[in-house]
């Protein structure tokens, strides 16, 4: 929650900074008089503090999860992580903006403010997932939003009087049109990289937030179109109502930015089916489909009730647009838009239908054949441990000697059947390069989850040093469990109704039961892949 609020405040502050610097660079004849010096300075000062929030989180993870000292963690983040580098550079830019004395070269301040937006984009999800392409797409998206909304917010809340000069509408309408075009284009590009399975993502909180964000964008576009029409008029009437509509649009934009901030604490679902192994379906989706989906899929289908709801909602939205453009009655427009968006959302949910589970009915004669279905032919798999539990087989194996994977399969009379994406993966640095690499996954749904309990805890890993370890004892909050070491790996699966504390030390035991060493583990993984 803290990081969500910090990200939202960061978006708001950068919007004010961009909007204020652009307006200061514009001739006074082409803009209203602004009294936003204080909010500008406050936004400038707060920006590095907000960028420091993810820095603190990464430092904490390195210190508590990987055993680095605080000084080592800080140095590592500042010099090797994009969040640390972005924070350090932001301090330098903020210092220049605060001490800037030459007001005649306002566009140079705009460039520096745009660089601040670039630093925020540098440490984004898109940049971490898609590299430079993701960074460029996210930067264009982010910059377009701050330009459009920043100017709007500063004018609506910090202009001296209600009268907005006509020349302002001329250039701002064009700027807003270009910004919206850039937002839509870059948004589609980012979705392809971050959420390739858009409809499937509605099963998860991230997808629900993304859908709500997109729906709220519709009334935002309506108000933007209203202001574009005003910009085409020779004379602006009802200036008080116009400024009021500016405020409504800016508030709506900040609500959308709040949703964007909330999305930063959710893992983008690149593969929804795989994510559902450890995450539950969002409660809102469960209202419409129940618990019918575990590792299945959803699709959109025709529904008469949903179609009628969608049609009525669209008509109500058009009525709100008519009230905004012709009557210029803001409150009727807002009420119509709110009801219409709620109706469109519920119609989309009613369009959703549960598809068939992705179950592979093929019977594979050998274990290796079944496992290889997840990988290319050139991939080298080495099975290190097998556990038979009733009619299932738990397998731990390495992938090209780097990743360590635990997978569940079904044992049948003539061979093995695969469960859909029933894999938990320890990736990152090669397991062969570390003396010990152990992780625990806290599973609440999917193929690793025991439906008779709320939680299933899966702990597995590789121990190369010390050499005399023959078994391990995992100390969860709810009890201790012993697992045998085989080919330097072990696996322990435990289910319970209790949410155990993240701390769960692991004792390395010799043949006689003597504790050789204790592996401190202070975190549990919530996804299906970890470093």
Automatic annotation (TrEMBL):
Pfam families: CopD (PF05425). It is found in: Cell membrane. The chain crosses the membrane at residues 6-27, 39-62, 82-100, 112-133, 139-160, 172-195, 215-234, 246-264, 297-322, 334-352. Residues 168-262 form the Copper resistance protein D domain. InterPro entries: CopC/D, Cu-R_CopD_dom. Coiled coil: none annotated. The keyword Cell membrane applies. Keywords: Cell membrane, Membrane, Transmembrane, Transmembrane helix. One of its GO terms (cellular component) is plasma membrane. This is Copper resistance protein D domain-containing protein. It comes from Halalkalibacter hemicellulosilyticusJCM 9152. The lineage of its organism: Bacteria, Bacillati, Bacillota, Bacilli, Bacillales.
